[in-house]
Amino acid sequence: MARKAASMSDSRELARRRVPHFLFEYVDGGSYDEVTLGRNQSDLQEIALRQRVMRDVSQLDLSTMLLGQKSRLPVALAPIGLAGLLARRGEVQAARAARDYGVPFTLSTVSACSLEEVTRAVAEPFWFQLYMIRDRGFMRDLIARAQAANCSALMFTVDMPVPGARYRDYRSGLAGASGISGSLHRIGQAMQRPDWAWDVGLMGRPHKLGNVAPVLGKRSGLEDFFSWMRTNFDPSVTWRDLEWVRSEWKGPLVLKGVLDANDARAAVQSGADGVVVSNHGGRQLDGVLSSTRALPEIVRAVGGQTTILADGGIRSGLDVMRMLALGANGVLIGRAWAYALAARGGTGVGHVLQLLEAEMRVAMALTGVTRIAGITSDILSR
After folding, report:
1. How many Å apart are CA 84 and CA 27, to the nearest integer?
2. Could you confirm whether 280 is annotated as catalytic?
3. DSSP count for the chain of H helices, then E strands
4. Share of the chain above pLDDT 90, in %
5. Rounded-to-integer distance, Cα 106 and Cα 315, Å
6. For the segment 28-67, what is each residue's pLDDT rounded down to a tens digit?
7. How far apart, in Å, are the Cα atoms of 76 and each of 135, 173, 236, 319, 337?
8. Cβ neighbour number for residue 24 with a 10 Å cutoff
């Protein structure tokens, strides 16, 4: 177990050594000075668990229901943009790993692999994440594609009316460098990772953003995508737009990016079936609350009325326990599976889930609980 646990902590370093610098910085970085990025982990790890003894913990049940879907763990894979560039057809590998382990997978709007490609590869329902785009006709078509792909839930991300200032992406050449010089800069970084260059760069083609390819057309380069994102994400979005999405989507609808209790109440009133307490992994407004700090107030506001998921800084089974004890019904993991995918492909993603389960089993036994419903504030030290 010690060697396996070490691989969990080493996956970030393995990813750094395997993928081009600009891709690693894209996954690893946050916005501005990355204060919130750091808080997400440090605030979570400060939550102390309460050890109990002399309890019968011989039989543990970690299964739960997430948005009407039975899950082996109270864990789902969060949407990661450009994940398909971290490994060959990366979203397909991650979706298969999640399916095989019995937990939900969320496909990003800006994935390399399209809805249809993932559906063909997995043949089981998964979740789809949606951004608000100015072109409502395109959005209507995209929602219809997700419906046709038998996606079982729609995760509407609302904390990105404009992209955050992610300085690492500019320094690495992902977002700032354009034209031939930008392409050559990224190609130079890719050539420093020959395994990636062969396996992903060459054999992993096509390198298009499958879900938005219809509107990008021939402009399929990374700078084309970032330019399109800056001009086509809709900063005018309001609660009326959520109602429009609700009218178009016929399944569970979850609002991702909620940090304020009043917004959580408004989400429920506007027809959302759940909220994700999230600051976009510290990648949007730097200096805001960590998800750990924001979660309890939102639970007090809408807990019991809707499904509450949370993400941000979760790196272990202990972190999952902490979020559940603070009132979340389940968690999303993001960087944890992205690092693992970059380091070891789908095998790495499956291994991360295995580690989370093993760590949760130990933590549940030592806090004296035997099922997910028993993970409440009572397991936290006062």
Report:
1. 12
2. yes
3. 16, 10
4. 80
5. 18
6. 999 999 999 999 999 999 999 999 999 999 999 999 999 9
7. 29, 31, 30, 14, 10
8. 23
pLDDT at 5: 42
Residue 317 CA to residue 380 CA, distance in Å, equals: 15
**Contact between 310 and 319 (Cβ < 8 Å):** no
Cα(92)–Cα(342) distance, integer angstroms: 13
Residue 126: strand, helix, or coil = coil
Distance CA 169, CA 165 (A): 9
Supply the pTM of this predicted model. Answer: 0.95
Whether cis (ω within 30° of 0) applies to the bond prior to 125 is no
Look at residue 85 and give its three-state secondary structure.
helix
Confidence tier at 344 by pLDDT (50, 70, 90):
very high
Alpha-carbon distance of 27 to 68, in angstroms, equals: 30
Other Cβ atoms closer than 10 A to 224: 15
- Spatial distance between the Cα atoms of 14 and 183, rounded to a whole number of angstroms: 25
d(C-alpha 331, C-alpha 329), whole Å: 7
- Could you say which of 21, 185, 207, 280 is catalytic? 280
Buried b (16+ CB within 10 A) or exposed e, 64-101: bebbebebebbbbbbbbbbbbbbbbbbbbbbbbbbbeb
Domain boundaries, the chain: 2-373
2-373: what CATH class?
A: alpha beta
